[in-house]
TrEMBL record:
EC number: 2.7.4.3
Keywords for this protein: ATP-binding, Cytoplasm, Kinase, Nucleotide biosynthesis, Nucleotide-binding, Transferase
Chief location bin: cytoplasm
UniProt-recorded name of the protein: Adenylate kinase
DNA damage as UniProt keyword: no
Oligomeric form and interacting partners: Monomer.
Region (NMP): 30-59
Free-text function comment from the UniProt entry: Catalyzes the reversible transfer of the terminal phosphate group between ATP and AMP. Plays an important role in cellular energy homeostasis and in adenine nucleotide metabolism.
Cellular compartments annotated: Cytoplasm
Gene3D superfamilies in the record: P-loop containing nucleotide triphosphate hydrolases (3.40.50.300)
Reactions that this protein is recorded to catalyse: AMP + ATP = 2 ADP
Positions of ATP binding: G10, A11, G12, K13, G14, T15, R127, V137, F138, G200
Length: 217
């Protein structure tokens, strides 16, 4: 299956992408991984992306699209892939349509993870990270530390990242609504969109997604 995963920040796309890709035996292709791989390998596209990022600028669509096309052409993606974070706007979606058409391929589904905006803010703004080890993550509502402000694992101080503050989260949501959400209508016109609720436990959302992709909505 060839799938695009879309949803607002905090919808759990990365988590669901990993589980879905494993269940469907297809590679999970995320924009972040594409950038990291190309930059670390010193590819021409990676050098271009790094130059823009070092200058504090957004990486142009054509560079991101080029990386995605290269990755989708790899042998492990021959029988499908799951795209996470790409396309992020309508022009990228149109470029993806053209690239797949040129290869005689097409998307099978666009999985839209739906989460109420207030829940997104609660999920992200409630995160607390350990200053000693950023892999130690807690949440003021869903995964409370035994002692407020103290990491259960190492005793380090827990803090709220700047990116997780409510004001920043709402700005990220504004960008999502303005730039990325329109791709849902783009794909609805092609009859590809499958919308599911991303509320609940991780395994519940994964089952919901698998059922929807199989047509058991």
């Amino acid at each position: 299956m060839r799938i695009v995963l879309v949803g607002p920040p905090g919808a759990g796309k990365g988590t669901q992408a990993a589980f879905l890709a494993k269940n469907l035996s297809i590679p999970h292709i995320s924009t972040g991984d594409l950038f990291r791989a190309n930059i670390s390998q010193g590819t021409e596209l990676g050098k271009q992306a790094k130059a823009f990022m070092d200058a504090g600028n957004l990486v142009p669509d054509e560079v991101t699209i080029g990386m995605a096309q290269d990755r989708m052409a790899q042998p492990d993606a021959e029988n499908g892939f799951l795209l996470d974070g790409f396309p992020r706007n309508v022009s990228q979606a149109e470029a993806l349509d053209e690239a797949l058409k040129a290869d005689g391929q097409k998307l099978d589904a666009v999985l839209d993870l739906e989460v109420p905006e207030d829940e997104v803010v609660k999920r992200i703004a409630g995160r607390r990270i350990c200053r000693n080890d950023s892999s130690h993550v807690f949440h003021v509502s869903y995964s409370k530390p035994k002692q407020e402000g103290v990491c259960d694992v190492c005793g380090g101080e827990l803090y709220q990242r700047g990116d997780d503050k409510e004001e920043t989260v709402r700005k990220r949501l504004d960008v999502y609504h303005r730039e990325t959400e329109p791709i849902i209508d783009h794909y609805k016109a092609q009859g590809l969109v499958v919308t599911i609720s991303a509320l609940g436990k991780v395994d519940e959302v994964t089952k919901r997604a698998m059922d929807a992709l199989k047509g058991d909505k």
